[in-house]
Amino acid sequence: MPSEALPPYSGTMWGRDMYAILEFENDIKSRVASVLDIDQNDIQLDIPGEDRGDYALPCFSFSKALKMNPPDAASYIASQLELEHGDVERTGPYLNFNIHEKYLAKNTIHGCLEKGDRYGELPAKKRKIIIEHTSANPNGPLHVGRARNPIIGDTISRIYSKAGYHVETQFYVDDIGRQVAILTWGTKNLQESELPEYGLDKIDHKLVRYYQKANQRMEEDGGVLEDIQGMMRDIEMGNKDILNEFSTNSERVMEGIRRSLERLNISHDVYKTESSLILDGSVSSVMQRMEELRICDRDEGALYFGEGDDRTFLTRGSGSSLYPLRDIAYHIWKSERCDEMLDVLGEDHKVHGAFLTSALSELGVKPVPRIIFHSFVSFQGERMSTRKGSYVTLDDIMNMAHEKAKEEVLARRDDLTMEDMERIAEIVGMGAVRYNIIRVQPEKPMDFKWEEALNLQGNSAPFVQYAHARASGIMERWDGDQKELLTKADTDKLTEEGEIKLIKKLAAYPREIRDAALSNAPHMMANYAYQLAARFNQFYRDYPVLKAEEKMMERLALVRSSKVVLSNVLWTMGITAPDSM
After folding, report:
1. Residue 580 falls within a domain, yes or no?
2. Terminal-to-terminal C-alpha distance of the chain
3. Considering the domain boundaries, does residue 286 fall inside one?
4. How far is CA 372 from CA 125, 227, 321, 526, 535, in A?
5. What domain range is 72 assigned to?
6. Tens-digit pLDDT profile for residues 302-321
7. Burial class (CB in 10 A: 0-12, 13-18, 19+), 550
8. pTM to 2 decimal places
9. Which of 379, 409, 432 is the last residue of a domain?
10. Lowest-pLDDT range of 157-166, 193-202, 388-397
């Protein structure tokens, strides 16, 4: 769903910001700013608990300018406000704002029915953002410790797409670095009989054995290290035969990585190789530019940036480039092709991230990338290491997820064909993996646990997916699931407490998209999805739909709207929305 295919909306029903909840927010800020004679961007609204209003405004910061204590300041501001679609009341030093429920119901339900999978999308911003994520060393399969990066990166990309950006995702392929050099030495010098027998099902699993054994030999034999360093120098000198060997091995590993990611609904628009930046002269050009600007120095022939303990070496003493210099060249290349850059990196790259932003700033490069740092995933308490071979691969996790999901399906359904059972198990299993990683804030460490990932009653993908399947089942049982009929429903009839609470949660989706993009917070999508599913399930328990005597059509419209938003938020997390489970 690339944002370049999303033209700005022009429907008159949407108002200034299309969505009632955002239009109401804008109206509050505009009118308060007018009363106080300040910029409305300086007004920060809170979102209180649902029993205390839709928005709240603390008035402490306005009391000095108004020469009143905070409660009096709040009373004065409230007396000057006439909101178009809502009311305001003072509670001590706070103003609480409530949107008119009939207006919200009509806007939200008709918006869901008319826009469908486009509901929640914000106006096109005519800005291109390049989001780099995954960029794992192509020396073996992804392990679960690194799985957080592509899942966070892909979810953030989907959020930005929904927020109206033209999004391009990139994978930076380190095809000439030390890791690929070790792998290539292994494929050239090791026999199959020397390797462990595990990992024969995919090409990246086969090749990682060469890397691990070669790494062990390198640590034991200094001659192996010299051979590896020699191959890297040969590439810098233009040895095309060695470069082809490196590229062949890295591409074979990348083939396996791509297949793994595709299973999780993750793909990249561009794969940019390090070798291309050397071959086209970009790396040498950056080095020359940094020397001309005198923003780097030499130590025994090696070029470095920074001072003291903060030095980062850009070249070896021989003059051959190191990864930091090539990464500068890559980001310059990206900066020439976008308006914004966002990198998703593990927390072990914080030093490199600080170096990169500093060096690019010194070079006058704009934009400088914003960086999302994430902690790593342990699996049942185990930390992962590709080098040591102590790791669980992402493929292992996905296969386990499929099998465990199938056990759950078997325990609940005896009416499915084997084909349907496998299909549902794959949808639920892959959703469980993605959601369980997304739901934790990126900077917080997490331990992957099956009892959490597949918990049908808790904060999990199956819980949200089941709510969508439940909504789909209701609509399927109704013979007239036609948008044209539902748009005629009288939304003014939806006045029950549970109906209004569900409508308000549906209405909040575009705001959640906006705020998640502004904060680079993918976990907000999981939190919202869980709250929406819980709210829908409570509505389902408390109110009849198909047997409702007076407002069946209105509740069906609400169910279909819930199905739309549950599907959309699941898409935003890269998770399939099943019609049955």
Report:
1. no
2. 26
3. yes
4. 22, 37, 26, 18, 31
5. 3-99
6. 999 999 989 999 998 888 89
7. exposed
8. 0.92
9. 379
10. 388-397
